[in-house]
Structures are given as C-alpha cells and as structure tokens.
Amino acid sequence: LLPPNLFYEAVQQAQVAISITDLQANILYANPAFERVTGYPLETMMGLNESYLSDHKTPSIVYKTLWGRLSQKKPWTGMLVNRRENGERYLAEVTIAPVLDPQGETVYYLGMHRDVTEVY
Ligand code: FAD
After folding, report:
1. Is 112 in the pocket of ligand 1 (CB under 6 A)?
2. What are the E-state strand segments in 4-88?
C-alpha cells in the first residue's frame, strides 16, 4: 500500500514547476521547483494570478487557444514567455490540465512548466 503523503511529497520534490489554481488561474499551491524557476518566493505567489508570470510577449491567440482547450476540459501544452522575479525573461514549456471532480466538472487547474530557454 502506498503511504498517504506520497503524492504530496512527490509533487513537492518534483523538478518540474507545479502549481494548482482555481478556475480564474489564481494560485492556490506551488511547489519548491516553481519557486526556483520563477524566482518568486512561494508566499508572494499565493493568491496571485498566473498571468503575473507573463512577460506580455506571448501573442494573445496563444492564450485564446489555451483557454479554449481548458473550456473543453482538455489539457494544453505550449510555449509561453515568462519573466522571473529578477526581470529575466525565460521560455516556458507549459502543460495545463483541468482537474475534474467525480461529476466531471472542472474544479482546479494543474500547471506544470520548465525553463527551456537553453534548448531553443
Ligand atoms: P487574460 O485576461 O488572462 O486573457 C487572455 C485570454 O484568455 C482572453 O481571451 C480571455 O478571454 C481568456 N481567459 C482568461 N481567463 C480565463 C478564464 N478563467 N476562463 C476562460 N477564459 C479565460 N500565463 C503565462 O503567461 N505564463 C504562465 O506560466 C501561465 N501559467 C498558467 C498556469 C495555469 C495552471 C493556468 C490556469 C493559466 C496559466 N497562464 C499562464 C495563463 C494566465 O492565467 C493568463 O491567461 C495569461 O497569462 C494571459 O494573461 P492576460 O492578463 O494577458 O490575459
């Protein structure tokens, strides 16, 4: 049998930046890798919107596609230009997926991203 805190510890220790948001993309949880990648202390990010990370260089059609997928309860993967706490810009490879309740309604969003600036 798996220990009850295994999933929490796995997310806490994951190397990919993970966040969980409400339906408006306000951050409810973020893991330590999220703090490392974005440079923002976790206390600062709690309750803030994910759009806070945006460098405002990503074309709006990308966000429309993203939200279009989420509204169909489907995950989206793509690239977003983000900005760290120190002002540095980075290219984020992002996957956002809806978290559904037993009735199939979206209740949260799960975001996972990594810095792929070096790769491109
Ligand atoms: P917005 O005001 O958000 O609008 C952009 C478009 O999205 C518009 O067409 C608008 O109608 C639509 N939209 C916005 N909010 C909603 C909603 N709640 N439901 C339906 N449609 C909506 N953005 C980043 O730039 N970087 C990230 O790392 C990032 N990570 C995210 C992680 C998660 C889990 C989620 C859910 C979202 C993430 N976003 C991220 C998207 C972010 O929430 C913003 O939509 C985006 O940054 C654009 O912000 P904006 O203020 O410029 O435009």
Report:
1. no
2. 17-21, 27-30, 76-83
CA Rg value for the chain: 14
Residues whose CB is less than 8 angstroms from the CB of residue 100 and which lie 6 or more positions away in sequence, other chains included: 73, 106, 107
Please tell me the pTM assigned to this model: 0.95
pLDDT in tens, the chain (120 residues): 899 999 999 999 999 999 999 999 999 999 999 999 999 999 999 999 999 999 998 899 999 999 999 999 999 999 999 999 999 999 999 999 999 999 999 999 999 999 999 988
Of the candidates 24, 29, 49, the residue with the CA atom closest to the CA atom of residue 107: 24
Cα first-last separation, the chain:
42
Q: Is 97 in the pocket of ligand 1 (CB under 6 A)?
A: no
In the reported structure, the alpha carbon of residue 6 is separated from the centroid of ligand 1 by a whole-number distance in angstroms of 30
This model of the complex carries an ipTM of: 0.95
